[in-house]
Each structure stands twice: as C-alpha cells, then as structure tokens.
Amino acid sequence: MKFTKMHGIGNDYIYIDCFDQPVPDNAPQLAREMSHRHFGIGGDGLVLIRPSETADAWMQMFNADGSESEMCGNAIRCVAKLVYERGIATKKRQLIQTGNGNLTLDLNVGDENRVDCVTVDMGPPELQSEKIPTTIANDGKAIAQTVEFNGQSFEVTCVSMGNPHCVIFVDQASDDLVLGLGPKIENDPRFPNRTNVEFVEVISRNRLRQRTWERGSGETWACGTGAAAVCVAAVLTDRCERKVTIELLGGELELQWDAETNHVMKTGGATEVFEGVWE
Q1: Is 223 an annotated catalytic residue?
Q2: Which residue among 78, 166, 223, 231 is the active-site one?
Q3: How far apart (Å, rounded) are the C-alpha atoms in residues 236 and 155?
Q4: Which of 69, 112, 154, 169 is the most buried (most CB within 10 A)?
C-alpha cells in the first residue's frame, strides 16, 4: 500500500490516496500501527483521501489511537496540496468533504506548480454546549466559565470547530499543564466525546502562543481546528482582535474570525516529507 507522509507546521499524518488503490478495511488498526513512532512510520494519525460524491475529495481521518476524528485543520491543507499536485483536482479553489461537512480551500500555488500555502474556510464556530458537546454551561454556552480540574481552578471556553475544544488561557503553557493536566481534561466526564485541550499564552492583541493536547494523539506540534477555536475564544473573552497570528510548536498560523460571515479563515503551509510503501 503506497502512502505519503506530510505535515502542516509539524502536525504530521500518513496519507493514503484511495483514488488509485483500494480503501483499506482495517483503518483503525492501520492508524495505530502506522502512526507508531518507534515501530511504524510515525505520525499523529492516518488520513484516507477518498472519492466523494459531493466534493473534489473526501478526507477521512483517524487519530494515532485508532479513533476516528471529524476534522483536522492542518491535515485538510495537506489533502488539498496532494489532490492538486496529483492531478485529482487541478483547480485552485477546492471543496473537501470532512466529518464537519464540505469545506472550501483556496490554494496559493508557487514555483513548479507546487502548493505553498492554503487558506481554509473553517466555517462558523459552534458555541452551544450540548452541540460541542460538554456539560459545562451557563445559559447554554461555556464561555469564560470557572471549572475545577484535578483540584485546580481554571477559566475555560469551549468551542467546536467540527470537533470539541476546551481553551484555557494561562501565564505559561508548561509541561505540567499540557502533559500532566491535558490528558485528564481530554477524558473528563464533562466532555462526553472527549475533547482537545488548548493552553494559550497571550503575547499581544494580535499574537497568541498555543500548545495543544490533542484528543487521541497526545501533544501535537500544531492543531488547526484548535487554533481556530483559540481565535474565537480569545475574541469572545476580549483578549485579541479578530485577526491574529498564533504561534505553535511547529510554526505559525494566520487566523481571522469574520464578523459578517461568522466564519473562521485559517492560512498555513503544507509540506510533503516522503513517500513509501507499507507492506
């Protein structure tokens, strides 16, 4: 089975082009085996690029633990790059099917007809607690709510960008918080489908710094849906402007929450690392 290893600012996945080879019937097991960083290829998960009846391609993704995820803002940029450069869809505006519906992507194509960066219309944020889902709520939403985790109190804002996020603003996104508290919050019963967790430092009203404990994968070097959720949470709590740069371990993303459309736009790079064959 042929595969391509790609990353969006360090958020790395293994991609299988199912346009020219069969869709594997054991994807959860494959995700666990191929994503293992010591015994496999290594990655944050597995992405199947499948034919779609409603879009240019369908992105079906699995976390490193084999669980299926609705959406990944970094992976979808890589899907668009692969779809364009493989000739599956050679237009610079694409429609990609995800577990969060069909999303529109605009490609910036540079030298040698290679995709340099991609802008993704992430759609509107979901703020209703029951739809995120979380049982944390005040008048149906979880915005700047004081919540206790592991004996410590935090102000949290919960947002869904097609998948659940719990955003926590801190003075320092330390290992104790990200690696120690992150997995506890991910599996907290107040998040029925588990949750991604963002620990965020405010640098200025135009710049934030983010570390993410990703549901099903552990800490990742970047999280695109998480960055979108962070942008929304920071605006809602008056910590930043609607257009902001977010620093992640693997690089930077540009986010804008449009006041008129209510959609979050995200721009970032997509990089192919290598190709191979999994036997």
Answers
A1: yes
A2: 223
A3: 13
A4: 69
- pLDDT tens-digit profile of 150-194? 999 999 999 999 999 999 999 999 999 999 999 999 999 999 999
Q: Closest Cα partner for 141 from 129, 152, 132?
A: 129
Do the beta carbons of residue 19 and residue 49 sit within 8 Å?
yes
* Mean per-residue pLDDT, 214-239: 97
Per-residue three-class SS string for the chain: CEEEEEEECCEEEEEEECCCCCCCCCHHHHHHHHHCCCCCCCCCEEEEEECCCCCCEEEEEEECCCCEECCCCCHHHHHHHHHHHCCCCCCCEEEEEEECEEEEEEEEECHHHCEEEEEEECCCCECEHHHCCCCCCECCECCCEEEEECCEEEEEEEEECCCEEEEEECCCCCHHHHHHHHHHHHCCCCCCCCCEEEEEEEEECCEEEEEEEECCCEEECCCHHHHHHHHHHHHHCCCCCCEEEEEECCEEEEEEECCCCCCEEEEEECEEEEEEECC
Q: Which amino acid is at 84?
A: Y
The overall average pLDDT reported for the chain is 97
18 is catalytic: no
Angstrom distance (rounded) from CA 243 to CA 205: 9
Question: pTM above 0.85?
Answer: yes
Catalytic residue chosen out of the listed positions 72, 78, 166, 231: 72
